[in-house]
Amino acid sequence: MTGMLASVCNVKEAQQVLDVGVDIIDLKNPLDGALGALDNELVKEIVAFINGVKPVSATIGNLPCKAEILEPEIRKMALAGVDIIKIGVFDKIDGEPELEMLSRLSQEGIRIVLVIFAEHYLDNRHLDNYAKAGVIGVMLDTLHKENGSLVEKLEYSTLSEFVKDGKRLKMIVGLAGSLNETHALDLVEIDADYLGFRGGLCKHGNRSNVLDTEMAFKIRSKIATDSVKRTNLGILA
């Protein structure tokens, strides 16, 4: 069964997606590239507002994949109280220092999801290393939002194989990238653990616009129920 992730950038939007009944609330700055991070104090404010009702994920920014750069930002976000921390794979992240860092943080209980971009995607050969490092999940997304959706950049067969390989390794697997209502209807058949939305929830499909609650409800209706998904994800103890 597939769940729904919605990206928000303030408390008002968090309330909107809570009303819709999404499964994961994701914190992201849509004005700052693919994985722009929100100010840490704003993250804390939104986390306090949600108050454990839903799992919360957050991005740490569009950062180089270097252990010495990523680790302090991951720790800072973890201290802000988010349940899942998303890291963009903007370049190679399977070097020894990076894998050791991921393993160390995972052993400390920090839940990390690696976001792999369709524009850079070649195959699934690195997923085993990520799983061994204790990463809880992987996600396929798009880097350049203005140049088409995930399903325009990768074949459905490729997306399906990615999901199957991630699940084989016992990782949570997500798909995102300029997805809309039509994509939701098609992608649920691939059986990813969750589908991520931002632009598809906004006025005129523009991720920088305010959220359109009516559209969010339409997409929600095509995604599995919250109670089922929360059990499958196993995010909340």
Secondary-structure topology with pairs:
Blueprint: E1 3-8, H1 11-20, E2 24-27, H2 40-50, E3 56-59, H3 67-79, E4 84-88, H4 96-107, E5 112-117, H5 127-132, E6 137-141, H6 150-153, H7 156-168, E7 172-175, H8 181-187, E8 194-197, H9 213-220, H10 226-233
Parallel strand pairs: 1-2, 1-8, 2-3, 3-4, 4-5, 5-6, 6-7, 7-8
Helix pairs in contact: 1-2
Spatial sequence of strands, sheet with the most strands: 1-2-3-4-5-6-7-8
Strand content: 15-25%
Overall helicity: 25-40%
Report how far apart the termini are.
Answer: 20 Å
- Give the overall silhouette: globular
CATH class label: Alpha Beta
The CATH superfamily turns out to be Copper homeostasis (CutC) domain
What is the number of domains? 1
Provide a count of the helices.
10
3D structure, described in words:
This protein is an alpha/beta fold. It has one domain: TIM Barrel (Alpha-Beta Barrel). It has ten helices and eight strands. Helix 8 (181-187) links the parallel strand 7 (172-175) and strand 8. Helix 1 packs parallel to helix 2.
What's the gist of this structure?
The chain is built from ten helices and eight strands. The chain has helices spanning 11-20, 40-50, 67-79, 96-107, 127-132, 150-153, 156-168, 181-187, 213-220, 226-233, and strands spanning 3-8, 24-27, 56-59, 84-88, 112-117, 137-141, 172-175, 194-197.
Fill in the keyword field for this structure.
8 strands, about 15% strand, about 240 residues, 10 helices, TIM Barrel, alpha/beta
